[in-house]
Design goal:
The chain contains 14 helices and 5 strands. It has 337 residues and is mostly helical. The longest helix has 29 residues. The protein is elongated. 38% of the residues are buried. The structure holds adenosine-5'-triphosphate (ATP) and magnesium ion. Adenosine-5'-triphosphate (ATP) binds next to α1.
Length: 337
């Protein structure tokens, strides 16, 4: 039996280069050797978009198209719509008893996101608890590996704490611990220099962006504010263009040469931006073409069959979970009327 993988994305917008480098590339590789499930996490997306459910629903198909256009193969990978698997919600409710508010409030990613969204004390309880629902996602699908960006490490840790607590408490081993799989670039910076490019911050290059938008975003990138004239020596550290060249250029020797020249002085921002634009255009053109060839109905069918298959596994896991927790209420009345 192949080991299982679970990962997913919130349908809050189209996927971007951060997803590609941080997680999608690993998923494409791993799908050959593992039983991989990818969740389009629409329920999780509602935790901070509950006032705009239409946007989330519309983006389910867009995210699925992103998967297919980069090379996720629906014959190898099961793509699942989270809201159509109610067992996730049930398992989340059980797990909420196994974590404390104190533990949840120490999660560094959630803490940062609460600050970034300006929630302060008014954080929706659903948002505050979303790491618990992620633990339900991972364990319901019995996943042992989770290819993610490094913002997700606290969620993996939280999942394993719940798994250990559950197994100890109910004297069982039905739940499996999981391990994160990180890529070489486990956090791609935003084009504005912020530490992570993300859909919500609008500081990312989408996999489906047209050529002119890619170029415009590359030329908007934060470089070195001290590098005013081309002849000035420039900084490579914290320079977004070089972070992207490191991540995406397929000739790292050429990138090392550009860095050396930039540091010495004599290399303008336009040259490095043109070089990055060329390599991103090459990378994204076939992805965009594949995307444009996808038919909505066909994508929906892939989602339907993936979700159906996942529902079976969800039922099997929940049966084991309920048995372990002794939640096996049996009706003794005749309710056939
Ligand atoms: P949102 O702003 O709505 O939270 P997002 O851009 O952060 O969207 P998610 O759907 O939250 O994307 O993340 C899905 C997966 O992609 C996660 O595994 C996450 O770690 C990874 N990921 C997202 N952004 C990046 C990034 N900039 N670098 C590396 N990995 C990333
Ligand atoms: Mg996110």
């Amino acid at each position: 039996m192949k080991k299982k993988i679970l990962t997913g994305d919130r349908p809050t917008g189209k996927l971007h280069l951060g997803h590609y480098i941080g997680s999608l590339q690993n998923r494409i590789k791993l799908q050959n050797d593992y039983d991989q499930y990818i969740l389009v996490a629409d329920v999780q997306a509602l935790t901070d978009h509950f006032d705009d459910p239409e946007k989330i629903t519309e983006n389910i198909i867009e995210v699925a198209k992103d998967y297919l256009s980069v090379g996720i193969n629906p014959n190898q990978t099961t793509i699942v719509v989270q809201s159509q698997i109610p067992e996730i919600a049930e398992l989340t409710v059980y797990y909420l008893n196994l974590v404390t508010v104190g533990q949840l409030s120490r999660n560094p990613t959630v803490k940062y996101e609460i600050h970034q969204k300006g929630y302060n004390e008014a954080v929706p309880a659903g948002f505050f608890c979303y790491p618990v629902s992620q633990a339900a996602d991972i364990t319901l699908f019995q996943a042992e590996l989770v290819p993610v960006g490094d913002d997700q490490l606290p969620m993996i840790e939280q999942t394993n704490e719940i798994v250990r607590r559950f197994n100890r408490l109910y004297h069982t081993n039905v739940l499996k611990e999981c391990k994160a799989i990180l890529s070489k670039t486990s956090r791609l910076v935003g084009i504005d220099g912020r530490s992570k490019s993300s859909k919500s911050l609008g500081n990312a290059i989408a996999l489906s962006d047209p050529p002119a938008v890619i170029k415009q975003k590359v030329f908007q990138m934060y470089t070195d504010p001290g590098h005013v004239k081309a002849s000035d020596p420039g900084r490579v550290e914290g320079n977004v263009v070089f972070s992207y060249l490191d991540a995406f250029h397929n000739d790292q020797e050429a990138v090392a040469d550009l860095k050396a020249q930039y540091k010495r002085g004599g290399l303008g921002d336009v040259v490095i931006k043109n070089s990055l634009n060329d390599c991103l255009q090459l990378l994204l053109e076939p992805i965009r073409e594949k995307r444009n060839s996808l038919d909505n109905k066909m994508v929906e069918e892939i989602l339907y069959h993936g979700t159906e298959k996942a529902a079976q596994l969800a039922k099997e896991t929940m049966k084991m979970v309920r048995e372990a927790m002794c939640i096996q209420f049996v009706w003794h009345i005749n309710n056939t009327k």
